[in-house]
Amino acid sequence: MPSRHSDLMRTGTALRRWALAVALLISTLASTAGAQQLAEPMSPDELSLLARHGRFNALLDALARYQKNEQAAQLIDQLEQRKTLAQQRRAARNAALDEALDRMREAATNDRTDKALTALIEAHGLSERPERLLVDEESTEVIDHAVTRAAKAVERQDWLEALELYHRLKLLYEDEGLYREESKSAAAHVRLIQLYAPERLQELARERAIARGDDVEDENEVEFDDWRDRIEDIDLRMFRSTLRQASRDHIEALSYRELMAEAVANLMRLLATDELATTFDGMNNADGRQRYTAYLADLLKTLGRDSYRMNFTDAVGLADRIINMNDMTVNLPRQVVLYELTEGVTGRLDDYSSVIWPVDVPALMRSTQGTFSGVGIQISRQENELVVVSPLERTPAQRAGIKAGDRIVRVDGRSTRTWSLTRAVDEITGPEGTNVTLTIAREGEDEDLDFKLKRARIEIESIRGWEHRTGGGWDYIIDPDARIGYVRLSQFIPKSAEHLDAAIASMEETGPVNGLILDLRFNPGGLLTSAINITDRFIDEGKIVWTVNGDEQKSAEARAKRRNTYDDFPVVVLINQGSASASEIVSGALQAHGRALIIGTRSFGKGSVQDLFALSGGKAFLKLTTQYYVIPSGRIIHRLPDATTWGIEPDLKVEMTNAEVKAALEARQAADVLREEDEIAEGDEQSIDPDEILAEGLDPQLEAALFWLRSQQLTDRLTVASRR
């Protein structure tokens, strides 16, 4: 007779078998239902969601059920092409990663830490798992060696090597914020040599290259900027006003003691830089130099005590004594001492606070006013020659027939062979109505050509489209079939909003605007009012931006108004790590209001307000950080010390490698060159059709923007059709 225990066991076994059968049945039914569900076409909303998340391959598969729809069929063809290009990009990226790692290993074997670190940075940008790459044994060995060598370079005051290594380490750990202070310190030493002894800096760089066995180009005569021009018109009032304003109005509210400590440290840095002895005779006075250094060291020790109290009068008196001691020891030019003390004060502040010295004021006026007086050309220095990148539209240079690629060999009869780019700009620009003669060497011409030009008021072009029109102007339509527009905003100047209005109006002349790509990549910012006005074009109510001070007290607030608002067409904003300040205000506000889809990579994180304070009656200006911007989501976008979040995070993250960014920028620059009809007819190997950027898959971020907008149009039509 079976036991009760045996019965229970059989019963338990039977129950388990039954439960397993039920589970299998449920699983089978679920699988069948799932298969039936997958067989059903996706809803328009689901298709839109795939595009929004960048799942373009899944979108391609899902659209197969809609291929009888003409617009869907067209999108399928475009997505097939995108898929092929994406596969090619991925294969190229993997190959480049392997090649970069091979170069890193080779450089490490040859004890070329600088090259190994450069290759590691490249590999880090190519890797799909960069965080794992940094903890790899080979990588950590390269990093540890670089850190050790950089520290030793500082000990022997080899500032070029220290800067080279610390700068690369900073780039490698950009998100973590490591090695920023070390890089900044080394850069401060190199700045001194570059300003006061540029020839010596060139010699040092050449000597290092020879010692390492690098290829060294033949020496070319280059005219360096004269440090005397930089300190011209500097006076004591500039230092005093900078000191007072920095302590009183800077967002961190630093004490006079802290500011003077950095001013003294900066002056000591100059005294410790042996390379400057060829510039300043007093630096060769060993006794005087030692006395002055010891004096400043004692001051620095006193200023380093938290208990030491100092008001403005104390600080000014100390600065006077520092200047007098200089006169009795090394006798540096007083303006040099004032310049370095002031640079020390601003160096203690954030990265965006600085003095706009008298020599820099004209450039400041050009950048903020949106106009300058000149002939209307973009120039660069290539292979030791001044080359015209492109004439600007409707300017004296374009009307006279100056072309891209022309080499400027003389200006008013003076050779440009040794000129720096800064010198060239200064010589070519000038008062409106005055004349300047450019002597041009042009390919295909046996003799140089002289162009006598009358300088005119040139308006900076901050808005650009997709393609130059023959005869002038821009075509802003990037996709004629879908009626999608494309606008690049390079900086925010006074008339940017008006120029955007004109671009939208230009598109509407030929049909409706069914979508817009607003490209803010590499836009460093500009005027806050311009950013507010442009944002206001896309939203008709609600907050745009406001500011807070160091105590997080809210101050100015900008709100949208109903007038001048554009139609409610879909918008994509492109951003990357070069999008800063005003660009972040626009993209952040449009994202918070749900008015635009943000595509690209995280923005720079420069969300601070700089106010300008006149120094010495407007001869110079102090640019001082006084507040932080807050976007409608309630978040400060500025990258604060030790922050883990900053800037604007895109809704759809599309990364590009450095090589891809470089290729895209070069292609865009070539497409932007303004050429006359005869040049187009003759053909130009250096010029490209902007459509090639899309056809060759050079810009995956722009590509993603286009596909999202195209998919939006399709899903909108499918939605309408489904309701009939």
TrEMBL record:
Provide the GO biological process annotations.
proteolysis; signal transduction
SUPFAM superfamilies the record matches: ClpP/crotonase (SSF52096), PDZ domain-like (SSF50156)
The organism's superkingdom is given as Bacteria
- Spell out the family assignment given in the record's similarity comment: Belongs to the peptidase S41A family.
Q: Which InterPro entries match?
A: ClpP/crotonase-like_dom_sf (IPR029045), PDZ (IPR001478), PDZ_sf (IPR036034), Peptidase_S41A (IPR004447), Tail-specific_protease (IPR005151)
Q: Might you give the EC number(s) for this enzyme?
A: 3.4.21.102
- Keywords, alphabetical: Hydrolase, Protease, Serine protease, Signal
What is the organism of origin for this protein? Answer: Mucisphaera calidilacus
Q: What class of enzyme is it?
A: hydrolase
**Which GO MF terms are attached to this record?**
serine-type endopeptidase activity
Query: Is Hydrolase found in the keyword set?
Result: yes
**What is the protein's name according to its record?**
Carboxy-terminal processing protease CtpB
